[in-house]
Amino acid sequence: MGTTPGSMRILPHVLEVEELFVGFGQLDVIRDLTFSVEQGSSLAIIGPNGSGKTILFKALVGSLPFRGRIRWAPGARIGYVPQKLDLERDLPVTGVDLLRAKARVTRSGEDIRGAARDVGLGDELRKPMGALSGGQFQRLLLALALVGRPSVLLLDEPTAGVDQPGQERLNELVHRLQEQRGLTVLMISHELSVVYRYATSVLCLSQVRACIGPPKSILTPELLGEIYGAPLEFHVHER
Amino acid sequence: MSAELTTLALSLAMAVAAGLVGCFVIMRRMALAADALSHVALPGIGAALALGIHPLFGAAAMLFFGAALVWGLERRTRIATETIIGVVFSAALAIGSLMSSGEELIEALLGGAGTLSLGETVFGLVAAVAVVLFVLAQRSSLVLVLVSPEIGHTAGINVARLNLFFLEIFALTVALGLRYLGVLLMGSLIIIPAATAKYLTRTLTGMLVGAVVFAILATLAGTLLAGVLHRPMGPVIISVAASLFVLSLFARRFTRLRSIGKAT
Asked: What percent of chain A has pLDDT over 90?
């Protein structure tokens, strides 16, 4: 198990996945998945609940066993923003505690205040995590992912449980950080309009089949209907 | 050094270790495991007495084995740790009670009288220092994995190994209390001061310091009170710790009421 270290040749892709199988026990949720991600691109992962989006991320970071091949480019560093966390609300752990912990473990010697400023957090960092609003907490997780200077960001529904203005702010923030730092972004999202706006390619997972391509060819009513098993409508923002 | 001073030094070292480990036991929601873990020492004690070796080493060996067993089962079967701990340790209690006599059992569970041997003292001090160093060195990794094992992986932490080490350190802390507080009460010294600190503090450092302070307070006050009341030390220490916990509930309510009063 674990990620396979990259070979010495320079990969055109930051990530290559070949014939991947991931699941629990005898049941494979992800079956024979092959795709690759270009350096600096933005891959959106869509699909109905239970299609294995989060499981895919867990396999990519090495926390779930898998069969097949996952190859990260040499030197790729991953920042991970997990899906809504099941944490006790009165845990006496502040944002500063978390950011400092990751800076210590990754030995990055980073200015954690800087990481917090990048996501627009200030004095909130001194509060226990449970005292933060949904949007503040997600921004804290984003700051935590940024500690250690990652080259790739994995975001699992980063705007779930955040109010509408907060969602837009968070999406713009991720996009801005990506442009400023040349990051590669992999994002699981249910917001198809956001996917349409920011993603350079879309990977769809479903029980029926997996497909990958540019947003225009994947986000069609016919294909979405097939993936989700029901007709879907979404509003397209112009880029 | 006199026997009393040695005992005091050992009990303070144990309090510090218990307080620190307790913080992560509480935050990982393993409070019940501390109680269950104490039961696993019993078959070890029984086996050690049957073989004529020191019960402490039998218990420590059994606790180490039990923690590794729980870790292995959890990884292979992905059943919740709580469930596995419940099954493994209840079975251990059953086997242990079959293997040892009533009197030995009570002493192991609730702590025994009598002076500590040199070997016991050295084992206690070395183990306590090891526990304290582990928690302080690994606190950042423990906190990250607590929030999300996946974030831990991306930070380069070997999460499975860290979980195994934590369980072993937890088991070692329980073993520490065997001759002194008894394994049952040692579980309480791990949980109660940390729970008190969690209730009263807002930062990680605050909780770690708070838990150590409450564990030391309970140990010192309990030891003094036990002398005055002519009662066994273990139960008095735990009663003091529990009283501090109850007081903390009132203290927090009071500070909350005051802050509401200020706000209006």
From this structure: 51
